[in-house]
Amino acid sequence: MCGNTRVFGSMDKDNNKPISIYFHGYPGGFDDVVLVSDILKDQLISADVFLTGAALNHHDMINEYVAGIGEYSKGAPVHLIGFSLGSFNAMCVASKLGAEVCKLDLISAVAPLQMGDFLPKMAGRSVFQVAQGQKWGFDLMVAGQVLLCRLSVNLFVKALFSTAQSKDAELIKNNEFRNSISTMLKAAMLNDAQNYKYVVRAYVRDWESVLDNISVPVQLWHGKEDNWSPVEMALELSLQYRNVFEVNVFEGLSHFSTLQEALPKCLKFKETLEG
To answer: Does the domain spanning 19-274 belong to CATH 3.90.1170.10?
Structure first.
């Protein structure tokens, strides 16, 4: 989406029903959801529809999310779901929307790096370490990732999942899953690399203060074998969030496999409100 005009298209909305808004991971896209079920796409709104394309940094992105969601919801209860690095965006938005949010679900969530010794356990630690350094270094790394996706997305996916473990290692051997995630990641890197850089650069800075401003009920969903965002991140968040009411840790699941298990369960909450 480009320009400065928000276009919500034909999204259906009933002010008496909760609006479930999904924040995808990075690199990634709303088609994260397709990795779980095509049917779920009809129950969710991609947070990306609230971006105008005019953001110059992560702060601008969050302000666009907040303004767009507020304009669209008009008093309807807002249910935020964040996956992976998208959980960082969801937390930032929840801290600003306050009571407008009825629930915050965080799947395979990330925690501030300053809260623990997480990096050695993270498969993507090299990306975050480079992002902590000079801007040009991270720009160069992302440019290389974009070029690799353009030339051979299969090699990019192979590198990304080279350390996949537990259920994720099985998923990437599945042709349908591998084809779907390859298509999604190529589109994300070729069309959304700038926002990817904004999010990662903001994430590696200290954002613990965001947690202090979140007052909504929080539910965490995490795979015990996750080596993208280690389970210790969820456990630490549960200690810092005063409103965490449940932490769900799945034995034998990792990152994307937890998304497959947790996302349908998150939407059960919406059904209880509608009922």
So the answer is: no
